[in-house]
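Continuing the series of single-chain predictions for the mutant panel. This is the parent chain; the variants come on the following pages.
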Amino acid sequence: MARPMNQLPQIDDPLVVFARDLQALRKKADDPPLAMMAQHSGMSTATLSNAHAGKKLPTWATVNGYVLACGGNPEDWSARWESLRLGRRRGYRRSVREALRRWERTGNLTPPQVTDEGELRELLKTLLDFNGLSHRTLAQQAPGYSHVTYGAVLRGAGPLRAKILYQILIGCGVYSLRSQEAWFHLLSSFSWKEGVEGGKLLARVEQPFAVRR
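Parent structure:
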């Protein structure tokens, strides 16, 4: 028997409504167990469970796999998902603009609070722009990874690891331990494991400059 899905709040938030409709689709398909859905979709059970939790927007690959595993037609969901994605990107742009104004005003390159990992990546891209860096020049400033790897990570096609985040920060001149800790704290909000790795990394890395940014 499938584990009961968490009851979602009866609110009109578009993300919650989307998740509620995913739950309804699963119920209509006679509540297939997540393990069975994982076999059909190629997604993990945790990823599928998060998709209908209503806390963050799942990737299109996740939605596509979820819907197919429940016998639905992904084309019926693509326009709604795209609308949600664009709505969240508009929110990203607001937070990015606010961060950029503060960086220009204070020179303190700490990040604002963000809602998900996608917004964190947007902030990192803004940090590169703030410093006038392309992916190639970032790879020259922080040679731990290639410009191809940096580009993939920043556009969401590669995982945002603690070591990569550290290299991006160093390449962008974020040398203050306090500022670095703030960025890693954000990362830990979305990946506890990478947050722990970031803490270990900062504990053993000597800060190359005394400049506080």
